[in-house]
Amino acid sequence: MRARIVLVKSAATLIALTILLVLAPWATPHRAVAQEQGAPPGAPKPDATSWVLIDANTGMYLAGKDPDEQLQIASTTKIMVALVALEEGVDMDEKVTVSEDAAAWAGSVYSNVGLYPYDQVSVEDLLTAVLVPSGTDAVYALTEHLGDGSVDEFVGKMNDKAEEMGLENTHFENPAGIDDPDNYSSARDLATMTREVMKYPEFRKIVAKPEATISTQDRQIQIVNTNLLVVPNSGYDYGLASGVKTGTSPQAGPCLVAAAESGDESYIAVILDAGGEFQRFDAATTALEYGFGEFENEPLVEQGDDFADLELPYRRDESVKLVAARNVTALAGPGLEVARQASHEEPPPSAEKGQRLGTVKVSVEGRNVGSSPLVVEQGYESASLWQRTTYLAGGLKRWILQR
User: Fold this and answer.
1) Which residue of the set 50, 134, 186, 371 is catalytic?
2) How far is CA 290 from CA 44, 83, 285, 371, in A?
């Protein structure tokens, strides 16, 4: 009877697995898995539809809420504009003539810097106007120029870059982030593109400016950063902040991509559809503070750590320890799974102290973060003739007794 019950249970299990396999092609594994990612216990809960905190050095996901949800992202779209422009190696000193179409965005309901038709502005000043006060007129002037007269051509380059980077939840329809069902991204994707563009010193310099001055052929325009984290005495300034970009629109709500660094730690926080215009700054600060407070680079393997006992050749009950030759340091903190995998060679007849006989590899959340040689803690000599004879005789004796 018991055997029949076991068979029935096994058959039921097989049927369930078969159903899952049949349904699998219609599932969306990337989004399903990603949506399960959240914040470790004790992490903050910013008032936002979606948010994410990543380690800027490695890109590792640390905490968040619905990090892969596709949402409108408003002017944070301009981060990708900067990435494409800088990757193409634009001449920052090149002069651009502002077209009538681009200048038409000035004076509209969208943020702008007040460019006039036929203004002569350098690429650097246009990029500054795009990133600091989020000038829509500036972004259309810049992308029209870099797209060989076609804004759509440049937007195509933005989408090509998103595809190249594997940003599966991102698509651009315009360079300014104007509300459009086909202009969207996710908190994780925005963090990824921000991490990439922060590699460019020109970008880092611009987004850290509290204010700036841009010039045309006949006037100067004073601009102030809309990212209050980098504006002293704004009431929301955060001393460790190094950028990056705000975004606000009716469909996207208040958004903010923020970066901060201190010593060897660097984090990027993305807040999408925050609870209010100013709450996004509090939310980003809270996320970044969580990073600095709970995560740190620490030795995950320390020099001298013991990873193996090698039995010496031709000697029973005699062994030598293999220890790490150096530290392996990486980011550690709540929710991060650390794995250490040690491997070693067969022990040679003799070895000197410090001789390498293996390796320990360290990974965090499945990412390789470093390795250390494993070396002999104490050297040893080759077995004597008596030790060899005794070892072989003992083995022969056990073989005879087992037969």
Assistant:
1) 134
2) 7, 27, 8, 28
Q: Which domains does the chain have, with CATH numbers?
A: 34-294 (3.40.710.10), 299-402 (2.60.410.10)
- The residues pairing with 248 across neighbouring beta strands, listed in sequence order, are 254
Active-site residue, 186 included = no
Q: In what order do the strands lie in the sheet with 265-274?
A: 61-65, 48-55, 265-274, 253-262, 241-249
Read off the pTM.
Answer: 0.84
Look at strands 241-249 and 220-224 and give their pairing.
Answer: unpaired
- Ordered alpha helix ranges (H), 24-92: 29-36, 78-87
Average pLDDT over residues 78-104: 97
Is 371 among the catalytic positions? Answer: no
Compute the distance between CA of residue 105 and CA of residue 113 in angstroms, rounded to an integer: 9
Instruction: Round to the nearest angstrom and report the end-to-end CA distance of the chain.
Output: 41
Using DSSP's 3-state secondary structure scheme, residue 310 falls into: strand
The reply to whether 343 belongs to the active site is no
Q: Do 331 and 55 meet the contact criterion of CB atoms below 8 Å apart?
A: yes
Q: Which is catalytic among the residues 50, 65, 75, 371?
A: 75
Q: Identify the band that residue 399 occupies on the pLDDT scale cut at 50, 70 and 90.
A: confident
- What percentage of the chain's residues is helix, strand, coil (to nearest 5)? 35, 30, 35
Distance of alpha carbon 134 from alpha carbon 113, whole angstroms: 8
Cβ neighbours for 337, distance < 8 A, ≥ 6 positions apart: 364, 365, 366
